[in-house]
Amino acid sequence: MERRNTRQLEAIRSYAEHSKSHPTAEDVYREIVKTIPDISLRTVYRNLNKLSEEGILRKIQVPNGPDRFDSTLEPHQHILCTECGEFIDVFMNNEERLLEEIKDLCGYEITGIDVVYRGRCPKH
Amino acid sequence: MERRNTRQLEAIRSYAEHSKSHPTAEDVYREIVKTIPDISLRTVYRNLNKLSEEGILRKIQVPNGPDRFDSTLEPHQHILCTECGEFIDVFMNNEERLLEEIKDLCGYEITGIDVVYRGRCPKH
DNA sequence: TTCCTATTGACAACCGTTGTCAATAGTGAT
DNA sequence: ATCACTATTGACAACGGTTGTCAATAGGAA
Fold this sequence. Notes:
The structure is a homodimer. Chain A is 34% helix and 22% strand. By secondary structure, chain A is an alpha+beta fold. The two termini of chain A are 29 Å apart. Chain A binds a DNA duplex through helix 3.
């Protein structure tokens, strides 16, 4: 399974790798299409998925919203503003006084936390 | 805005409220349709959403999967087995030795944690 | 019973994402 | 350069889960 460096992959990699805004596939597409007008959204999806499988990006599956792609690989969480859609990083250490810490750090008032761990159950 | 007690709402409430299995709307529909054959999936969605807005159920938005409805209102998290789809509760207190705790508690080996807090940003 | 309107069921549409497949374009060998 | 091979692409359609729409139905107070 040979690996090929296409214009499309390179453009997507360099954009997503340097982006700090947690872009969605749509976001990436709207940017890349300016320089590669005939690129397809399908290809953006394919390459973003490939890059996240390779560990170059991290795919963030946002409940009730499009996936976002994150170039920051260090473990951290995210906050989504339910009013304006702003999506920011949170780096936290201890969970105890987390909510107050978050409010101190960035002014967000948390209205919901939905955590879903993923894993393999004892049978697998 | 008067409130009406329909057969459909009552059936959905009593099933979901007593269920311990985090049913999806489909799950609820497949059960209720046995006793109310002409109920529609649309109505199941509507009433599950209504019940979770009223705080009677908790809606869990699972990334890349259908929403689940939880009758356990105490704060807790969930684990989804990526192999068999089993979906279980986790009650945790401190985050520090969380992963080892989880493994001790229920044998799950965590392969991913995607946390998205929701809130209002300082502008709102 | 009557009337009002909340709720329903049928249906279509939505969004984000992936499947399919023939056409295209990297890449390594000649 | 040219070739042949096949990974990748772009088109298009389809998917799954959920919600919008709207005329028909059925609670519930008078």
